[in-house]
């Protein structure tokens, strides 16, 4: 169940390695977004491998013999009745460190927070959003003056690497589950809603230069709508960013 480049790449890995992983992929649920690319078309990949594809998560309920549900950038929130279809486990690849950045727009918030480190996680899928027990993670340093698009690209690559590294052991049941409540004792814990990005995109020209540039780097991600200057409503671009001293 997934979409975008990262979902496509992880699915392709599964399909190319069904023999070595001792698996059958019996169905795929594609998450269509405004930025979906023909280059990473899950539909075309399923057609090539003759795998049935579904668009409604309720179609999960028609399966009788699922061992695993694997979610990689799937757009819908699964309910308990969906998750319970997996006899062994339902898992989710979340492109952020847990429990620090649950929810949406995690790349932007990490840059706004001035975080020095980011990461990607695989966790057990539960009804609480990104709240299931941690299975595996990779962490890495955020480059200096990193833009959100750059951090996203790095995280996609790290997520694919983590998925390839861990999926075999997950299928075999060789996992150690760590409750996020335990991790929260040593790490920060945070959750962000999708609409919070609108607030981040409002940049006040009265702010200090460092803050203006940090918020711009966190929210300037073509082709998505750009950040704007609060008082004038002017859309901000790289020329504006480079003019700040």
Taken from the alpha-carbon principal axes, the silhouette is globular
Helix content: 25-40%
User: Into which percentage range does the β-strand content fall?
Assistant: 15-25%
Quick one: CATH superfamily of the largest domain? Formyl transferase, N-terminal domain
Look up the CATH topology of the largest domain: Rossmann fold
Strand order of the largest sheet: 3-4-6-7
N-to-C series of helices and strands: HHEHEEHEEHEEHHEHEHEH
How many separate domains?
2
Low-confidence runs of at least 5 consecutive residues: none
Q: Class by helix and strand content?
A: alpha/beta
- Mean pLDDT value: 95
The CATH architecture term of the largest domain is 3-Layer(aba) Sandwich
Described by strand count, sense and barrel closure, the largest sheet is: 4 strands, mixed
Measured distance between first and last alpha carbons: 45 Å
Number of helices: 10
Strands, count? 10
CATH class of the largest domain: Alpha Beta
């Amino acid at each position: 169940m997934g979409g975008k480049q990262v979902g496509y790449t992880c699915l392709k890995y599964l399909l190319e390695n069904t023999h070595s992983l001792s698996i059958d992929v019996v169905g795929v649920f594609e998450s269509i977004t405004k930025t979906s690319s023909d280059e990473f078309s899950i539909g075309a990949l399923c057609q090539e491998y003759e795998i049935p594809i579904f668009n409604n998560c309720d179609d999960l309920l028609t399966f009788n013999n699922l061992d695993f549900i694997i979610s990689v950038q799937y757009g819908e929130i699964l309910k308990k009745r969906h998750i319970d279809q997996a006899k062994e486990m339902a898992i989710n690849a979340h492109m952020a460190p847990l429990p620090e950045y649950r929810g949406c727009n995690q790349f932007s918030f990490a840059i706004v927070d001035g975080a020095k480190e980011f990461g990607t996680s695989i966790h057990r899928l539960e009804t609480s959003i990104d709240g299931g027990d941690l299975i595996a993670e990779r962490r890495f340093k955020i480059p200096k003056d990193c833009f959100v698009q750059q951090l996203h690209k790095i995280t996609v690559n790290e997520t694919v690497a983590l998925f390839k590294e861990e999926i075999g052991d997950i299928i075999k049941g060789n996992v150690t589950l760590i409750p996020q409540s335990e991790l929260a004792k040593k790490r920060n814990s945070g959750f962000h809603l999708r609409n919070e990005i609108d607030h981040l995109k409002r940049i006040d020209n009265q702010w200090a230069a460092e803050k203006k540039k940090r918020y711009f780097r966190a929210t300037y991600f073509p082709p998505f709508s750009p950040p704007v200057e609060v008082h004038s409503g002017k859309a901000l671009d790289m020329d504006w960013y480079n003019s700040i001293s």
